[in-house]
Amino acid sequence: MSKIKLTGSNSGYVEIASAADAGNLTLTLPTSGTAILGNAGNVFSGITTTGQLDINGSIDVSSTSVFNDDLTLTGASYNVLWDKSDNQLEFGDNAKISFGGSSDLQLYHNGTDTQIQNLTGGLYIGNIAGNSNHVYISTRNNFVVQTNLNEAAIQCFANGGVELFYNSSLKLNTTNTGAIVTGICTATSFSGSGEGLTRTTAYSHRNVVINGGMAIAQRGSTSTGNTVGGYKTCDRWELSLTSAGTWTVTQSSTCPDGFNNSIKLDCTTANTSLSATSFLSIRTAFEGQDLRRFAKGTTSAKAMTVSFYVKTNKNGTYAVELYDVDNTKIATSLYTVSNSNWNRYEFTIPASTNTGQFANDNNKSMSLGFIVAAGTNFTNGNQYGTFVQGSNLNRAAGLTVNLADSTSNEFYLTGVQMEEGEIATPFEHRTYHDEFLKCCRYYQELTGNDHQHKGSSGTTGSFKNCVIGAYNGDADVRVTYYHTVPMRVNPSMTISSMSHFDLEPFDQEPSSVQLLRPGNTQSTLIIVPTNQGSHRGFACQLTLDNASANITFDSEL
What we know:
Among the domains are: 143-181, no CATH class; 222-436, Jelly Rolls, CATH 2.60.120.260; 443-554, no CATH class. 3% of the residues lie in helices and 36% in strands. The chain contains three helices and 35 strands. The strands form eight sheets. It has a seven-stranded antiparallel sheet with strand order 15-16-19-24-21-22-25. The longest helix is centred in the C-terminal third of the chain and has 9 residues, at 432-440. It is elongated and about 145 Å long.
């Protein structure tokens, strides 16, 4: 049978216990009136309860205590919960962890933000685990450091830049292309070429590309029905075309802000299935003596940086090639068009010390070409960003577009620049006069168009352009045309619309105009057959009285 035993001793305690293995012990406490336990200093040992134990006084625990379920610490306004199932101590909003005699350091969440507040002294965060360990501060979005409670000091933006401030004034901003410093940048030294700071190359005459802004078009502004290459409109820019559709080439007024013109390729007959030999590019060429500044093939070699503007409705990856004719070397670069806006692209070919020098002469040493369609003979190689041994297979390797695959396709190019160094500087704008004279080294026209080339103004039928000469004898008139500028080499001469040529003052219409001899780079001697022997020794004018009439002088590369 069970029993309840109350014993007392000189030790001053009362024990309520059940006999071993005697079954359950039930102690029913009164609901009011008499307290079973009283006085201070009661001792409880070995008590297990499956219900609720309410203790209204203080509890002194002198040894380890184990709580096997949730434990709530109730505050005047905010509670703290040990959550058994979550294995964590949970502080309600605004319930604080405080350190220090005067709650000097407080950690809490106010319902919106987490707060770490230090009210006294400095706040130190240290990692002394070893030299190989770091302190990481990670955030999903932006990271901001403020001083004086609300003055911006550092701002770090997700997937963006970093900003440094002085007294809330922005001084340094990192971008995807470098860093922008506002104010004076003082340093004991700088590494690199310094090209972007004080420039090591001349700011003027730095662009070796002639007519990169497409402002000059002596041959005319539009050329249609093109199925083969050649110079079509803009001076110094040659169409290279083999089995890649039919094209209209135009000097266009569609251009980026700050420019006047671009060159436009417009597909009028498509080729959706290019052959292995198909090729389409727009390119320019350089004399060797104009490339010597790059010191290619020497220990002093300099990098070449090319920049340009493109607008096209055909997205994809395009190729640009630098073809070294002197040494049969090729360097290429790729650029990707992802929208139909004007975009500026740039690339740098590193200095090349061991791939041969450019010849110091007036012959073609290198071409710069913008490839927009190519067959497998030009794409089945590898793309190299440095000069390597020339192979047609490498010239357009990486090209993914075929601009000839639709008559809706069009391609605009302008602002082409090639310069020394690793920095692409703003496009070097030259005056129309300067650009025109540079183009005249390679091509000139004497035309009946009032507005084309040094002709006098007048109405139809007046003498638009003329060359002074004299009747040499019974059979011909000889005139000397002095070139606008000395040409690269002795030019070839072509004639068109003979019916609009006249010999004045006798109003003769010549049957032909011929080169007496090739002439030289500064002038060309022209012979005009005639039967006016009686006029020997008389001065005369060879005139052109219509825009379709012209004499061209060509010394292109």
